[in-house]
Amino acid sequence: MVNATAQPDPWFQSFDFDPYTTKFSFKNALALAQVSRLAYATDAEFVNRVARQNFKFEHVRIFDREQIEALLLADREKIIVAFRGTDSLKNWMDNLDLDLVGGPFGRVHEGFSRGLSWIWREVQGAIQDLQVRQRISDSNLQSICENAVRPPSLWVTGHSLGGALATLATAKLREKDRPVSGLYTFGSPRVGDREFERNFNMSFLSKTFRFVNRNDLVTRIPLRSLFYSHVGQLVYFDYQDLAHNDPSFWYRFLDGIRVRIEDLLDLDLSTLENHDMIGYLRALLNNQNRTWEELD
Question: How far is the C-alpha of 288 from the C-alpha of 258, rounded, in Å?
Answer without folding.
Answer: 32
